[in-house]
Amino acid sequence: xxxxxxxxxxxxxxxxxxxxxxxxxxxxxxxxxxxxxxxxxxxxxxxxxxxxxxxxxxxxxxxxxxxxxxxxxxxxxxxxxxxxxxxxxxxxxxxxxxxxxxxxxxxxxxxxxxxxxxxxxxxxxxxxxxxxxxxxxxxxxxxxxxxxxxxxxxxxxxxxxxxxxxxxxxxxxxxxxxxxxxxxxxxxxxxxxxxxxxxxxxxxxxxxxxxxxxxxxxxxxxxxxxxxxxxxxxxxxxxxxxxxxxxxxxxxxxxxxxxxxxxxxxxxxxxxxxxxxxxxxxxxxxxxxxxxxxxxxxxxxxxxxxxxxxxxxxxxxxxxxxxxxxxxxxxxxxxxxxxxxxxxxxxxxxxxxxxxxxxxxxxxxxxxxxxxxxxxxxxxxxxxxxxxxxxxxxxxxxxxxxxxxxxxxxxxxxxxxxxxxxxxxxxxxxxxxxxxxxxxxxxxxxxxxxxxxxxxxxxxxx
Length: 462
What we know:
The chain is an alpha+beta fold. The protein is built from 14 helices and 13 strands. The chain has helices at residues 8-16, 28-45, 51-61, 64-75, 96-106, 133-138, 145-152, 154-171, 189-200, 208-211, 228-232, 282-285, 290-293, 353-359; strands spanning 251-253, 258-265, 300-306, 313-315, 320-328, 362-369, 375-381, 388-391, 398-399, 404-409, 414-419, 423-427, 454-460. The strands form three sheets. A seven-stranded antiparallel β-sheet has the order 2-3-11-7-6-5-9, covered by helices on one side. Strand 6 and strand 7 (375-381) form a beta hairpin. Helix 2 crosses helix 5 (96-106), helix 3 (51-61) runs antiparallel to helix 8 (154-171) and helix 4 (64-75) packs across helix 7 (145-152). The longest helix has 18 residues, at 28-45. The radius of gyration is 22 Å and the shape is globular. The N and C termini lie far apart (51 Å). The model is unreliable at 1-23, 83-90, 116-128 and 338-342 (pLDDT under 50).
């Protein structure tokens, strides 16, 4: 049985160079260098704008307030935050038009895997995955006051949605698989080793093709994947993620391959989610559905985040019946106001995950679970470019633990499981173990909880 042969310490070091969830490099010089490269590429080719970008740009320019915000979010970034700039010492993207031109180039390019050694723009041996290319460009501007006002605006998001839909269309096309091609792409050995390392998470030693279903393992260039989206929504092989306690309704399983973020009790119907502490607000999170929201008042929320390098489908954590599925449009690049300047989140909106549960594009499923859990909701949250939440189940469908519920396209972000008051979770030992006193888990290692694995023992208040 072929196992993972790559140097473990080297791969661990590469993973450590990425931000939470491995969507962006920790080294800001890597992001800035990449953005500069894309901007220069866009200027060199000067391709006609995608119609969706043309329409978005025209909408912004015809609105004096939004036009001003669209320009100011670039100029409000302090010069000191642009370290390692272009050869002239200035950030390559300094205005709205250059942003539009650069996004135009991104719309016909899949997320690239690159591993550049010994380059000044990166830490030694850094793996420079830019999992959120548009987010990477907006990393600092979205943290300015103008950036927050711009990207929180519902009309801005409504008009930017077709741009992301165009990107989604490209990522589902055969042209997008160029970035998969071995030996340097995602099907190459270096990338396979990195993905397998995350999939094994220090517990097993399977190779990539042992972990995941590959349409044609004999295809050395693409492994049979016909697009970037096909590759990114790949499934685990049978029995790689066995369903824990399939008939025990007192055991709650993991719905996603994800790392635990926090567990919050006594959630309110309405709360100010824009505060620094980012409390959950049920009415906002559940899209003002009072009939459902009121049943969770005083209950609890468990939140966990997904990695760019992992599995992006959602499985049922319980046995039960689907009551409803709802897709909610929302923001794409909005972060909690307290995560902006003067002390910005270096990988925005990673530090705003509770906040985005109330504002971002999301898919909500309500399940009547068997046993002590009863009614529960799961909120699958799209973040930045990850805006497409697809359900594969329907109302009144009977589901069992481990059944597929749906997926994120182009990766994943975060998800929340919402419980009624009186439902208590005793978290599985040793992983994830109980949260810290503030309800959070240590994010140092970002070790994933395996999808279908046991998350918690469920009890109810007497």
